[in-house]
């Protein structure tokens, strides 16, 4: 799969030449929350692209999703997961039998991109949603709230929407 466009450009005419669309920063921390992404997937199917365009996201889909869709990726882009390094034109290999998804970059290129990466600036209103974004763990473990947010010491921890390391 070749990444052609981000989710917000999924409806643009240039998408017809794409093999894939990535919807990053839709995971528990990046959303924040895990918004339902079946509608963008349904739009791809409605455009006649359901058999030729895959949608890859760290967000979620319902059981009614049609077409080639991969979701719940961990670690999510908002904490520096490999999908955060993906750019337009990159190849993402989807290996369904082995349950693997890989951004086809050399380790040096991947590390360099992640070294220069910072979370997108997102204004999160005060209250529970901000608390959730700061303390939610990965989708692979719940996602539940905790002081350590469920990330291992080796994973990048950032405060969603702030662009700096989380405290705690």
Describe the structure.
The chain is of the alpha/beta class and 168 residues long. It has 3 helices and 6 strands. It has helices at residues 38-46, 107-115, 128-135, and strands spanning 3-6, 20-23, 54-57, 69-70, 92-95, 100-103. The strands form 2 sheets. A 4-stranded parallel sheet has the order 1-2-3-4, with no helix packed on it. A two-stranded antiparallel sheet has the order 5-6. Helix 1 (38-46) links the parallel strand 2 (20-23) and strand 3. The protein is globular and about 40 Å long. It starts with a strand and ends in a 33-residue tail after the last helix. Mean pLDDT is 76; it is low at 1-8, 12-17 and 153-168.
Largest sheet: 4 strands, parallel
| Stretches with pLDDT under 50, minimum 5 residues | 1-8, 12-17, 153-168
Return Rg in Å.
16 Å
Shape type: globular
N-C termini distance: 38 Å
Which strand order does the major sheet show?
1-2-3-4
Number of helices: 3
Q: Count all strands and give the number.
A: 6
Strand pairing plus helix content: what structural class?
A: alpha/beta
- Assign a percent range to the helix content: 10-25%
Mean pLDDT: 76
Q: Tell me the strand percentage band.
A: 5-15%
Element-level helix/strand string? EEHEEEEHH
Give the helix/strand layout.
Elements: E1 3-6, E2 20-23, H1 38-46, E3 54-57, E4 69-70, E5 92-95, E6 100-103, H2 107-115, H3 128-135
Parallel strand pairs: 1-2, 2-3, 3-4
Antiparallel strand pairs: 5-6
């Amino acid at each position: 799969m070749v990444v052609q466009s981000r989710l917000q450009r999924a409806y643009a005419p240039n998408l017809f030449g794409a093999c894939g669309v990535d919807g990053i920063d839709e995971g528990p921390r990046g959303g924040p929350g895990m918004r339902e992404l079946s509608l963008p997937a349904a739009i791809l199917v409605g455009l006649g692209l359901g058999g030729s365009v895959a949608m890859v996201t760290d967000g979620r889909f319902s059981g009614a999703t049609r077409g080639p869709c991969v979701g719940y990726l961990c670690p999510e882009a908002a904490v520096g997961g490999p999908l955060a390094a993906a750019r337009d034109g990159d190849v993402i290999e989807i290996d369904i039998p082995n349950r693997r998804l890989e951004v086809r970059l050399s380790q040096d290129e991947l590390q360099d991109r992640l070294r220069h990466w910072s979370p997108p600036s997102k204004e999160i209103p005060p209250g529970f949603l901000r608390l959730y974004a700061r303390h939610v763990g990965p989708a692979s473990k719940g996602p539940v709230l905790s002081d350590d947010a469920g990330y291992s010491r080796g994973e990048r921890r950032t405060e969603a929407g702030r662009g700096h390391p989380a405290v705690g």
